[in-house]
Amino acid sequence: MSSLLKLEDVKVYFEVKRGLRRTFYVKAVDGVSLELRRGSSIVLVGESGCGKTTLGKVAVGLLKPTSGKVLYKGKDVFSLKGRERMEFRRRVQLVHQDPYTCLNPTKTVYAILAAPLKRWGLVKRREELLDKVASLLEEIGIPPEEYLFRYPHQLSGGERQRISLIRALSVDPEVIVADEAVSAVDASIRVELMDLMLKLRGKYNVSYLFITHDLAVARYFAIRSRGFIAVMYLGKILELAPEDEIIKRPLHPYTKALLAAVPVLDLEYAKTREPLPLKRLDVPSPINLPSGCRFHPRCPYAMEVCSREEPLLKEYSKGHYVACHLYDRG
Amino acid sequence: MELSGEDSILELAGVTVTYKMPRGIAKVVDGVDLKVNEGEVLGLIGESGSGKSMLASAIMRVVPPPGITTGSIIFKSELLNGKIDLLKLPLTKFRQVRWKELAMVFQGAMNSFNPTIRIKEHFLDTASAHGWHDRGEVLEKASKLLELVRLEPGRVLDSFPHELSGGMKQRALIALSLLLDPRLLILDEPTSALDTVSQRVILDVLKDIYHRLKLTMIFITHDVPIIAGLAQRVAIMYAFKVVEVGPIEEIFRAPVHPYTRGLLSTIPSLTTDIDEIKPIPGRHPDPINPPPGCRFHPRCPYRDEKCMKEEPSFIEVKPGHFVLCHKALEIGGGGAS
Amino acid sequence: MRTVKSVRGRVKASLSWYFYDYLYEPLLIVWKNKKARIGFIILVLYALMAILGPKFRPLNLVGNPLDAWKPPSLEHPLGCDYLGRDILSMLVNGAPLVLSVAFLRGLFVVLIGLAIGVIAGYVGGKLDSFLSFITDIVLNIPSLPLYIVLATYFKVTDPITMALVLSVTGWAGLARSVRSQVLSLKTAPFVEAAKVLGFPTRYIVFREITPNIMSYITINYIWSTADAVYAMVGLFFLGVIPFSTVNWGVMLFMAYRFTGAIYSMGTVHFMVAPIVAIVGLQLGLILFSYAMDEIFNPRIRTEYFRALR
After folding, report:
1. Which residues are B35's β-sheet partners?
2. What is the pTM of this model?
3. Mean pLDDT of all residues belonging to chain A
4. Residue C152 has pLDDT above 80, yes or no
C-alpha cells in the first residue's frame, strides 16, 4: 500500500508572550509521526486542547509546522511549487466541524457546489454543471429539485454537513481530513453521516484522517473502515492500534481513563461505574508541560521514571503501539 | 396519567407553543402532557428540532417572541403555598418563583457569563436581584456550592469567566443555579460542548448534587447514553410531542415506540454490537406541516392504514410506561423486544 | 419560479439566472417593501426629471423682469425668481449636476473605502498598520473646511472633480468598518474551506468575503450619496464656490443671501422650491435603503419568497 500522507515528527509551537524577558510557547503538537496509506484510514481521538485540530490543519497544508515534515506521496508539502502544489491542494481536502459556518451564508447550494467544479475545470460546459451538481446532491440523499437554490440557513445541521462532505469529495481527493465532522450534529444522525462517508469512500477511493473526541464514534468508524485509532494527549500520540483493539485491550492509563469516562447505554454498567482512574481531573496547560511523561501528574500508575523520562512510542504487540514506561521491557 | 400515588411537582397538560410564520402556523411544541415526580430525575430525550428545548423555555416562560404558549403548567410551589398554573400567573408573581424555586441551566450557557465581571459578582448579582443583599452570606453559600461541584472556591470566585475552562464554567453555572435552593432544576444539554472527561465529571457532580440536595431534575439531551446513570424516568420527544415515557430500565432494555427503538439502535455506543447500529431513514417533520395521523409514520417500519390517518393516543403498556402508538401493545406487550 | 421541476429537462442559459438573481428578484423585494417602494418611485421621478426635464423645460437665464416674484401659476408651476426666471426650469436643469455629483461621490467613497478596508483587513501586517494609520488621520480631519479649501483650489465645475473633492474624507469611516468585518470573516470556516479547495486570494476576497458585507456597503453607498447632496448644496449655499450655472445650492444662495427671499411671504417660494427638492431626494434615498438589507441578507430575502411560492 502506498503512502499518501506522512507526518514526520511534526511540532507546532505557538508563541505567547507572557513575561517581560521570556517568551512562552504553547506546544500544541509536540512531535507526532503518522502515516496514512491508500485504502486505509486513521481515527485520531483526544480531548479538546490535545492538538488534534492543529494537527489536522497541518496535514491539510493550512499551517506550517514549527519543525518536522509533512510528506505527500513522499514529497515535502511545504516546499512544493506550481503544478505539484496545486495537485496537493486538490488531493487533500478538509471537512469542518461546525456545519453552521462551513458554508458561505450568501451562496445557494448550487453556487457552493458548482464553484470548486469550475475552479478545477472538472466540468466544461454550463449545462453540464447543473447536472453534475444535481447528481452530487443525489449521492448524499438530498433531492436536487427542492434544495438546489436553498441557502445554508434553510438547511439542517446534518444536511449542511453532508453538503460540506460532498463538496470536498467533488474535486476527487485522495485524502480527507474530517475534523470533528460528526460532533456538531445530533447523536442520532452521527451514524448516518459516518455511513455516508464510508460508502462514498469506496466510490471515490479516498482515505480519511478522522478526528474526534468521542470514543464511541471513533470505535464505529475505525471498525467500519478497518482503520486505526490513535489516542492523542497534549500534543503527542500515546497509543495506536488497529480497529477496536484499543477499546478491547487498552494499554495506556490515559486510554483506560478515557474509556471509563465515555457514557454507555448499558444501565448495569452505568450504575456500577467506578470513579475515574485519574489522580487529577484538570488537564495541565500546554504552556507548562509536565516533565518526563506528560500524563504522569494524572496517572494512577505513575512510577519514578515517569517524571524523568518521556516514554517513546513502541510496538507492544502486532500493530499495537504505546508510549508508556509500564510496558517498557528491559 | 403517570405513576399514581406519587406526588408530582410539575404537571404539564396540553402545552403548546405556536408561532405564526409567513408560511403558516408552526406548533413547535404540540400538546405535551407530562408529569414530573418530586425528587426524581427525568431525562427528556429528543433530536434538535423536536421541541425539547422549547418545552423547557415554555416552563420557564422564556419562549422567544412571537411564540405563544398555551395549555397548563401546574407547579407545586412552597413559596405560593400550593399548586399553581405557572402560565396563568402574572409575570411579577412568576418572577418570584423563577430562579427561587425553578431554575434552569441553558444550552451553551457557559458562554453567557458576563466577561467583564468576576464569578463572585455573578453570584452577588443574582442574589441581590432576588432581595438577598448580605454579601457575606451569599459568598459563603457560593463557596459551599462551588465545592459541591468540585471547584476551588478561592480560585474560582475571583476569576473572570475566560480564565476558566469550558468544564469549569459549566460547573460554576450549575452552582449558580443552585444559589437560591431551587426545588426543580432543568438542564438543557449541560454537557454538549464538552469533551469526554469533563462530561463525566459533570455527570458525577450532578449525581452528587442530586443525592445531597434531594433536587428534582429535568435533564434534556439528544445524546442518550449520558443520562444512563442519572435518570430514573425518561420521556422521548419526537415531532414536537412526547411519544414515550416511562422508567429508564424498561425503555432502554425494551423500548416500545418505533422511534425510540430506532433511536436506541442508532446511537453509537461503546458496548453495542457494531452490526446492530443502524440509522433511522427519513427526516424529521416540518412544524408547519407535520405528517397526518401519526407523525412518525413516514419513517416507521410498522405503519399501516390507521397510522397514516389517525393520530394515536397514549397506551399504558406497563404501569407507568406510556407509548403514543397505535401498535404499542403489539410491539411491546409481552415483554421481549 | 425558482423551483426546478425537472433538473435534467431544464435548459436555461446561465445568463438568465444572473438576470433573475441580480435584477428581477431585488426589484421585486424593493417593490414589496412599502418604504422602499416609495423611495424607489421618488428616485425614478428624480432621474426622469434630470434626464428629460432639461429637454422639456429648457433653461432660460434671461427671464422677464415683469414676471419677477410671480407666485406659482399654470405657466410657471413653481413661480418665478427675482429676475422673472422660471423656478421650475432652474430646478430641473440643476438636477443633472446634483444627481450626478451625488451618485458619483457615493461611488468614489465606496470604492476607496472598500479597497482600503479589504486590503487592510485581509492582508494584515504592516500594510494594515499603515493603512489604518492613514484612515485614522483622515477620519479626524474636519471635512467642511477641507472641502472649502479644496474647492477654491481646484476647478469644481464639472461633476467628476466635484465628486472627487467631496470624497476626500468620506471613505475613512467605511474603510474602518469594512476592515473590522473582513478581519472577522477572514477566520470563518467557509473561508478556510475555500482556501483548502484551492481558490485563489482574489476569489476569496471578492466572491466569498465581499458578498457578506454587501448590505452594509450598499447602505453606506446610499448614505454617502445623501451626504454628498448636503455637502454640495451647503458649499454653494455658503457661497464659497464660484459658480457658473444655476443649481439648487445656488438657488438657495440667491434666495437667502442675495435677495433675502425668506423675509417675505410673497418671495419665500424661491427658497422653498430648492429645499423641497433637496429634502425629497434625501427622503427617496433613505427610504430606498430600507430594502438593502433585505436584498443582501439571505435569511431575510428567503422569507419573501416563501410567501410567494
Report:
1. B11
2. 0.83
3. 87
4. no
